[in-house]
Amino acid sequence: MAQEPQNPADQVLTTTSEAPVKQPPPPAEEVVAATAATTDKDVTPVAEDPEKPAEAVAETAKPADETVADNKISQSVSFKEETNVVSELPDLQKKALDELKQLIQEALNKHEFTAPPAKPVTPEVIAQEEKKPEEEEEKTEEKKEQVTEEKKEETVVVGEEKASASEEPKTEPEAPEAPEAKKVEETVVEVVEKIASSTEEDGAKTVEAIQESIVSVAVTNGDGEQPVAVDVEVPPSTPEEVEIWGIPLLADERSDVILLKFLRARDFKVKEAFTMIKQTVLWRKEFGIEALLQEDLGTDWDKVVFTDGYDKEGHPVYYNVFGEFENKELYQKSFSDDEKRNKFIRWRIQSLEKSVRKLDFAPSGIATIVQINDLKNSPGFVKKELRQATNQALQLLQDNYPEFVAKQIFINVPWWYLAFSRMISPFLTQRTKSKFVFAGSSKSADTLFKYIAPQQVPVQYGGLSREGEQEFTTADPATEVIIKPATKHAVEFPISEKSTLVWEIRVVDWNVSYGAEFVPSAEDGYTVIVQKNRKISPADETVINNTFKIGEPGKVVLTIDNQTSKKKKLLYRSKTIPISE
C-alpha cells in the first residue's frame, strides 16, 4: 500500500475511476478524467496557503531531515504502485486472483457475460403493454366470479348431502385426467434429463452433436388434431470468449494484470471484483465500445483533453484543461442539449479508451497513466450543464476503468478548490489520497518538473515541448538551474573545433535580462556579441532559440540577470553540429 502523505495535495478528489469512496462522486469541476482509474482513513489537514501544493512544493525553512525528505519526494511519487508479477504477490492476493479466475471461468462456461437481446420496441409491443393492465383486471374479475360460483356449488352440495343422508351413497365417477398437455410436459422433462445425462458422459460433444440433440416431441391433443412439435435444446457447452481493452479475460499474464486492477479497486474482495468485471463487460457491449473506436467525433475538444509526453517513470501524461470551456461557442457546442452532451461523453470515453489500449499490460510494463488537471479559469460550480456532463462521465470512468491512474496532479488551483477539498477529504480512502498532488498557480511548473522532465512538459505549462518541427525533441534532455533573487547566472558552452552551436533557453515566468556572447580562447581574440542583453517579460517569448557558427576555439556564454525578489527556474539545452571542411 502507498505510504501516507502528509501534504494538502491529498485532499482532492479524483475524477477518474479511483477506488470507491464513502460518498457519491463530487461535482464535475473535479476532473473529467480518466481515465482512470484507481482505488484504494486518516484525514490530512489542508494547508492554508493555496500556493503550497501537496508534496511540499513551497520552499520554507525546515530541519535538515525534512529537507532530505522533500528532496526524495521530488525524485519519486508518494504513491508506490504495487507489483503485477503474480509470483511477487502476497499469498492472500494470489489466492484472491485464483478464486476470481475460477469465478470468471464458470461465468464464461455459462455465457453469463452475454446480455440478453433487447426486444424491439414496435407499435404492437407498445399496444400489448398498454393492454396488460386491462387484461389483468379482467382476469381478476373472472377469478372472483369463479370463486363465488364455487362457493355456491359447495353450498348446494352440502344441502343435498344432508337431504339424502338416509339414502344409499352414490359413487361419483372419477374426474377426467388432466389435459394431454400435462403428459407433454412430463415427456419434455424426461427428454431433457436424458440429453443432459448423455452430455455429462461425453464432455467432448461437438456443436453439431448438440444441434442434433434438439428433439421434437410429437403431441396430439384429445381431438386428434395435428401434432405439435416441442423443441428441447441443450445449453451450449463451448465457453464464451470475452475481451476487455483488446485482451481476453483469461489468456495470459496480461489478463492477470487486468484482473488485479479490479481486485485492487475492490480491496481484493473477490465477489465484488467479479461483479464489477461482469458489469463492465456488459456495459462495454451496451455502450458499443468497439464501434465507438471507429467513430469520427470531430476535433472540437482536442484542447480540452490531450496526451503529451511521459513522466520520469514512463507513464503517459494526460491533460484535462477545464478553462477551455470558458469559450462560449465551445460550451454551447458541448452542453446545450442532451444530444450534444452525449456526444461529448462518447468522445471522452473514446479518448480514454484509445489511451488505455496503448498501455503495456505486461506484468513489468506501464499499465497506468498520470493525469494533469489544469483548473485555471475553471468554471467552477456555476456551470450546471458542465457539472452534469462531467458527473455522468465520472461515474462511467469510476465504474469501468479501475486503477488506471498512478498520479493525479492538480495545477493552477484556486482558493475555492482548497475549501472544497477540505469537505471531501474525510470521505476519501488513504490509498486514493496518496495519489494526489495539489499546486497553486505560482508553483505549478515546479510541481510538474518533480514528476515530468522539462523537455516533456508542454510549453504552456513552463516546459520546452512544442508542436511542429524543432531543433530539439523530447529525447534531448534539458538542464534545470535555480537562479536566486538579485543575482546573475552564467551558462558556458565550450567549443574546441569549427562547428555550429545550437541552444535553447527558457526562464519560467521570465522578468529577467538575457544576453549571449562568444569569447575566443586566444588572448588577442575579440569577444563577439551574439545576443544583446535585454529585459524579457513573460509576454515576449516562452522559449528562445539561438544558433552561432564558430570558426575558432572558445566558448559561448549566456548571462541571465535576475533582479526580482523571487527565485527563477532556468531551463536550457544545446548541441553542436560539426562543420565539414
The end-to-end distance, rounded to whole angstroms, is 61 Å
The coarse overall form would be elongated
- For the CA atoms, what is the radius of gyration? 36 Å
Low-confidence stretches: 1-77, 118-122, 161-220
Helix content: 25-40%
What is the strand content?
A: 15-25%
Structural class: alpha+beta
How large is the count of helical segments?
14
Main β sheet profile: 5 strands, mixed
Describe the strand arrangement of the main beta sheet, using strand numbers.
5-6-7-8-9
Count the beta strands.
17
Mean model confidence by pLDDT:
76
Features:
14 helices, disordered N terminus, elongated, five-stranded mixed β-sheet, four-stranded antiparallel β-sheet, alpha+beta, 581 residues
Please give a quick description of this structure.
This is Patellin-3. 35% of the residues lie in helices and 19% in strands.
Commentary on this structure:
The chain is an alpha+beta fold and 581 residues long. The chain is built from 14 helices and 17 strands. It has helices spanning 64-75, 91-109, 123-163, 180-201, 207-212, 253-265, 270-287, 289-292, 328-335, 338-357, 384-400, 415-424, 430-433, 444-451, and strands at 215-219, 228-232, 243-244, 247-248, 305-310, 316-321, 369-374, 405-411, 436-438, 479-483, 487-495, 499-507, 512-520, 528-536, 544-550, 554-562, 568-578. The strands form 5 sheets. A 5-stranded mixed beta sheet has the order 5-6-7-8-9, with helices on both faces. A 4-stranded antiparallel beta sheet has the order 10-17-12-15, with no helix packed on it. A 4-stranded antiparallel beta sheet has the order 11-16-13-14, with no helix packed on it. Strand 5 (305-310) and strand 6 (316-321) form a beta hairpin. Helix 2 (91-109) crosses helix 6 (253-265), helix 6 packs across helix 7 and helix 10 (338-357) runs parallel beside helix 11 (384-400). The longest helix has 41 residues, at 123-163. The model is unreliable at 1-77, 118-122 and 161-220 (pLDDT under 50). It comes from Vicia faba (Broad bean).
